[in-house]
Amino acid sequence: MGNETVAMPRDNSALLQHFKIFEDFAKGTVLDAYVLLDVDGRVVKANQQASAMLKVGTKQMMKAASFEDLLKFNIEGSPLPLKDLLSLQNFRREDMINGVSTAGENKFVMLAYPFHEVGQVIGTFLILREITGETSQGSKLTASTTKARTDMLSGLFNRSGLEDHLKERKLAIEALPEGDGARIHSVVMMDIDFFKKVNDTYGHPAGDYVIKTVAQLVKTSCRQSDSAFRVGGEEFVVVFNATPVEGALVAAEKIRSTVQAYRFEFEGKHIPITISIGAASLDVTAADPHVDITRADAALYFSKQNGRNRVSLHDGVKLQPHLWVLEPKVAAA
Questions:
Q1: pLDDT for 24 beyond 70
Q2: How distant, in Å, are the alpha carbons of 33, 305, 306, 307, 314 from that of 327?
Q3: Over residues 182-211, mean pLDDT
Q4: What proportion of the chain, given as a percentage, has pLDDT over 90?
Q5: The whole model's pTM is what?
Q6: CA-CA distance, 162 to 104, in Å (whole number)?
Q7: Which of 117, 234, 265, 327 is catalytic?
Q8: Other C-beta atoms within 10 Å of 316: how many?
């Protein structure tokens, strides 16, 4: 018999204990891809966005000998070895980093947080925010068909683009194993509050300006991997890929507050603008995914019924407010 040594799994309990301070942040507010790596570069934790980005299931990611086997970094063509990120003494940020995987090449903003125990690095938390320029906003619609599926006023995809996107996502998800986190999608519907009043008070050119500006605010508030659509006069839809509804609610509130804070001015006149939003989980593999979109629409109507400029959720059973309180109805005397 030889004297072979068998590598024992590393005890990452201390690393996981340190990561707890990021746990709620990572689950509730991070819409970008993240991985938690041990000192050997193995994946200890990863979210659904990382799985979708690499087109690798989370279990397969954790089986890899090193995260570098899945994604290799470079900065302007110069390799950035993973070991450099696993020996950091302080937080590091890179605003333009390239990542090459079997799924292709992407550009990221990268945030790296090292964890230390008794002066030694025991692991690193990486957040990867995609900034790859994609004219299709994460959809692979071909250039020859993009124009027909684009709303010319807002620059977003139109209803036909939404239908194609749902079909595309269904094909992509059906290729993933059951239980893979990347199969989870969410949808929000949003509507500009009192838009008819904008047209009646300030004129249709002002209304067009508001549509275009809201579309741009929605687009810049989303990730490249998400897809935004204008499906009606003042109605918009965003499909959040590989995102549970909790993440979509965070994004929806960000969009709502961004629109509320923006100063809309047309021909020297200030136009106060807010939006109402409804959110729901989205099963793009269902016989009719429009059922979930209808739930998001019902949540949108619930927001409008209860004061507008707010986000509501349809959880598949009932409607409920998000970050606001439903006032009890007073019985008639």
A1: no
A2: 37, 12, 8, 10, 18
A3: 95
A4: 53
A5: 0.62
A6: 24
A7: 234
A8: 12
